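Quick one before lunch.
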Amino acid sequence: MAGEPQADCLFCKIVEGTIPATVVRETETTVAFRDINPQAPTHVLVIPKAHYRDAATLAAADPQLTADVLRETAEVAAEDKVDATGYRVVFNTGAGAGQTVFHAHAHVLGGRGLEWPPG
Ligand code: 5GP
Ligand code: ZN
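Model of the guanosine-5'-monophosphate complex:
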């Protein structure tokens, strides 16, 4: 069923607490934790607690939850003090774009110069 936890999903296990993570923020609907392989001084992943395979599926299924995730990216940036200097929010969508974990997540990247266009 849409949004139900998936037994083989790494990020569902982080939501459940069976795999540890450095959690920086949690709300009723979302969790934010530091990326295990950071690509910038601030590299935090914001995920919905409910399982959706990617951002497009999440957006189609639950606009409020999508907004919750986006709002939390701003809260993370403010808490890490990268909001004033600028930061990037990325949803890799599909393997061809580099998505490796198929539980929707926003990357929040900041604390260094970020090139545009990205690679
Ligand atoms: P994607 O490539 O799917 O857009 O992003 C997945 C991200 O999850 C990667 O940046 C990767 O470093 C991160 N990641 C993978 N496994 C773990 C883990 O067990 N813990 C944490 N905190 N991050 C992880
Ligand atoms: Zn999941």
